[in-house]
Amino acid sequence: MNTTPDFSCDVLIIGSGAAGLSLALRLAEHSSVTVLSKGPISEGSTFYAQGGIAAVFDETDSIESHVEDTLIAGAGLCDRHAVTFVASNARSCVQWLIDQGVLFDTQVQANGEESYHLTREGGHSHRRILHAADATGKAVETTLVDKALAHPNIRILERSNAVDLIVSDKIGLPGTRRVVGAWIWNRNKERVETCSAKAVVLATGGAAKVYQYTTNPDVSSGDGIAMAWRAGCRVANLEFNQFHPTALYHPQARNFLLTEALRGEGAHLKRPDGTRFMPDFDERGELAPRDIVARAIDHEMKRLGVDCMFLDISHKPEAFVRQHFPMIYEKLLGLGIDLTKDPVPVVPAAHYTCGGVMVDDNGRTDVDGFIRHRRSQLHRAARRESYGVELVAGVPGLWLVRRGGYYPAPAARSEGRHAASMG
C-alpha cells in the first residue's frame, strides 16, 4: 500500500460513536482531529442504546455501592482500581454531556424541586440510571454529532473503513516502534487512502455482529481488535461475550432489544403459560445481572422446548408505560404488539464484547502512538446494565485527555496493562 500520506492530522480517531466523538471534542480544543465512520455517522451502536447512564446522583446512593454492584456483576474478575476510577468520575462526565446539551429526563419532587429521573436496572442496588426516555443513546449521539460537525478542528469522514494501522518498522522508519497512521478504504471514491497521525485512537466498537442473533448493527465486526493485534498489541478476555436477555423475537425486527429499564420499572419475565420464572433462579428476580437472566431464559426455553419467553409490563398503567417507553411502544405497535396490553416475545442475543486490547490506566497500548478506549477491566466476565453509554460516552475518554493527553507519555510497564473492550 502507499505510504505517502493523502492527508494528516494530530489525532486519528477510528470510530464515530460516543467514545470517539466525546474524545474528539475534548482533543479539538488544541489539536486537529480526524474521525472515521464506517458508514453514516449515526450507524454505530451508541445510536441504538436505550436504557441510560449509570452514575451516583441519589443522596441515598454511594460510590462504594456502585463499585460493589459492579464487582458482583463481574463475577469477581473485575479490576477494582478501574471500577473505582469509573464509578468515581462518572457523575462529572455525565455533567459534561449535560453541558454539551444532552437532555436527560427530569421529574418534580414532592418539595417542588426538579431533579433527574433515575431508574433502576439489573445488578444495581439503587436507582442510578439517568436516561432520555427510552432512547438515551440517540440523545447522546445526536448531540455529540452536531457538536463535532460544527467544530472547525474536527474532520469527520463517513463511509471510511480503517483497513490497517501503519506501524513504523513495517515501512522502514527509524526509532522506536510506533503507530504513525492508518490505511483507509474510502468507500465513496473506492480507493485506499493513507493518513498520517501523531497518535491513533481506536474507538471501533465490539464484535457481537459475528453472532447470528445479536442486538448489534452491521458495523460491530471486531475490526479494531484485529488491527491492534496485527500491529503487535496483546488482546485478552475475548472469551467473555455478554448476551442481552431481552431481544425481541420477531422476524421483522431481529436486532431490536428491549431495554433493561422495562424490568427496572416492574416488567416480569414469564413462560408461555403466563407464570413467572426468575424468582426460581435468583432472589433478585428480574433485576438479577444480565448473565443470570439470560441463562434463565435459555434454560426455560430448552426445558419447555419453546422458541421464546415473554416480557410483560401490562400490569402497569398505560400512561406510565407510554410516557417512559415511547420509542419501544411505537416500534412494537408497528409490529402488531401493544406493550401496554400484550406480553412481548423475547430471547437472549449477543450484545457486548467484554474483552479486547491490553491497555494501561491512560489507555496506552503495547505500541507507542496508539491508544485504546478502555473498558473490559471493568466488566471481565459480565457487564452490568447501563454501563455501555456511561463508558462509551466519556469516562475513559475524557480522563485520558485530563490525565495523559493524547500523545503517549513515557511507556507504562506491561504488567500495568489491562484488557480493553472496543467501545
Number of domains: 2
What structural category arises from helix and sheet content? alpha+beta
Mean pLDDT: 85
Give the low-confidence spans. 375-385, 388-423
What is the annotated CATH architecture of the largest domain? 3-Layer(bba) Sandwich
Main sheet?
7 strands, mixed
Give the beta-strand count: 19
Radius of gyration: 21 Å
Number of helices: 12
Terminus-to-terminus distance: 28 Å
CATH C-level class of the largest domain is: Alpha Beta
Strand content: 15-25%
Overall shape: globular
Keywords:
single chain, 423 residues, alpha+beta, FAD/NAD(P)-binding domain, Flavocytochrome C3, Chain A, domain 1, 2 domains, 7-stranded mixed β-sheet, 4-stranded antiparallel β-sheet, 12 helices, 22% strand, disordered C terminus
Question: How would you portray this structure in words?
Answer:
There is one protein chain. It is globular, with a radius of gyration of 21 Å. Strand 1 (7-14), helix 1 (18-27) and strand 2 (33-36) form a beta-alpha-beta unit. The protein has helices spanning 18-27, 63-73, 80-100, 136-150, 223-231, 260-264, 290-304, 318-324, 326-333, 376-379, 388-392, 395-404; strands at residues 7-14, 33-36, 53-54, 106-108, 114-116, 118-119, 129-130, 154-157, 160-167, 179-186, 191-202, 235-236, 241-248, 268-270, 309-312, 344-353, 356-359, 370-372, 418-420. Strands 1, 2, 8, 9, 10, 11 and 18 form a 7-stranded mixed sheet that branches. A 4-stranded antiparallel sheet has the order 13-16-15-14, with helices on one face. It has 12 helices and 19 strands. It is of the alpha+beta class and 423 residues long. It folds into 2 domains: 7-238 and 355-420, FAD/NAD(P)-binding domain (3-Layer(bba) Sandwich); 241-350, Succinate dehydrogenase/fumarate reductase flavoprotein, catalytic domain (Flavocytochrome C3, Chain A, domain 1, Alpha-Beta Complex), CATH 3.90.700.10. Catalyzes the oxidation of L-aspartate to iminoaspartate. Pathway: Cofactor biosynthesis; NAD(+) biosynthesis; iminoaspartate from L-aspartate (oxidase route): step 1/1. Belongs to the FAD-dependent oxidoreductase 2 family. NadB subfamily. Its main location: cytoplasm. It is an enzyme of class 1 (oxidoreductase).
